[in-house]
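Quick illustration, no need to memorize.
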Amino acid sequence: MTSIRLFLLSLFCLTLAACQPAEDSGPATETPAETEVADRILTGGTVITVDGDRPEAEAIAIKDGRILAVGSADEIAAHAGELTEVIDLAGRVAIPGFIEGHGHFLGLGQALMILDLMPTRSFEEIVAMVAEAAAGAEPGEWIVGRGWHQERWGDTDLPLFDGIPHHRSLSAVSPDNPVVLFHASGHGAYANAAALALAGIDEDTPDPDGGTIVRDDNGEATGFLRQAAQDPVRARLVAAEAGLSDAERQARFERQVELAGEEALRHGVTSFHDMGTNFADIDRLKALAEAGRLPVRLHVAVRHETNEDLRARVADYRMIGHGNGFLTVRALKRNIDGALGTHGAWLLEPYTDKPETSGLPQTSLENLRETAGIALENGFQLNTHAIGDRANRVVLDLYEELLGARADEDLRWRIEHAQTLHPDEVPRFAALGVIASMQGVHATSDGPWVPQRLGEARAQRRAYVWRALLDAEATICNGTDVPVESISPIASYTSSVTRRMANGEQFFPEQSMGRMEALYSYTLGCAEAVFDEDELGSLTPGKRADIAVLNANPLTVSEDELAGLQVEMTLVEGEVRYRAD
């Protein structure tokens, strides 16, 4: 992992010289005697390449979907022909296309088709949204939403149970429709009376393994279902959709892909690490890739399949760069714990604000070990969701057990989130070659309430310790966990650099990334996390021409201006797929 450190050293002068005149942009690019003609040229701005050999340039030449050359405006002008399209950057900044390092692609599309609860700031506001939806719904039609978080709500006069009101007021406005509203983290759900009845959840229903049916003082289910307790409601929702025809299901799927792609491209995201898709959806994605209809590059992890099915079928699904580089499937995904927000992350010590629990493990170690064996046998990465410090320790112990004898192999297994780490675990990432797939925006989104969960001292030493991981020479791949958060790389980049929360305070800023470190984590770092550094992650001749154009330079604007950066153009394979109005 020392390559990251060397790369950053080579870019040190870039930050210092970013405001210097254009003639200082670097050595001349060598061109062959018969200069190749470009299909498209971007010129007249700043090019941040994230390439240590030439960190900055003025222009880019593109041919056949790949970077032909980078250099000064005069050098790249030599590649212009009669049919070359020349795009004037007009002082704007071109960077490698952002790579979403951990998200849920189809989940993003689905989130754009249901109630968006992320902006809500009170329970009463959610009830009002459901009332409006119920007024326009047919009797028996499901009402689905996602994005609420109890820590964003203000005070309420309603009695609370584990921080959540009883479902009575929600049920009163939706008596004829089952309602399920998924927590922002996806690790909990809130259901009304109709949905609970369909799922068979009442005062006599026992808590399932790995889940909690939150109850009131009389033992009645309040509607809040933590972790595995939401599965019966999810099953009834899936069953309700089973009546769709094949054509309707395919149309719905394609609409999810379309909406997710539009949202990704609007934010400069050209590649997306998808953390959870089953075989059936992979078949559909493969067909779209072969038809040239995937809007961004997808690196898909197989999820929601049993170990038995994985063992029987996963070898047939391994594909790298399928559909001209738009679909790769070479990872398996498992969850070992839940989320901090729902008290589901698995901790070494009890929660400060709920001392009767240390979290809810979601996968047995035996099951995870079996999945790991299947990954090794079939040439797959293993991507394990681990948020709590105990969960991360257990996963690293398993990785060390299985990878120790294969230290000479470049396997790049990952831990997804790694939000809470005991200091002893930090150096193990680099030592084992494990990728820390983390989401910068989670720190500032969660920051106001994390000390409540962990206590101030534990939060300071263990929560979102990016600086400690980078100093230990671990590779961080950045992202957003969309639709848990907005897909905006600008928001996550800004959080990575400033760790400034919505209230203006900084969440333990000593763990911040430098600006180039944060950009690396969103480009080349994520390319390395999926073995794609030779194709993506930097604007290097020969690599794919996936480019985002920003209105200003993320390395030099003031800290106050970072959040105001805008994506003005997105190119995939050298083609403009998004342009701001």
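The radius of gyration is 24 Å.
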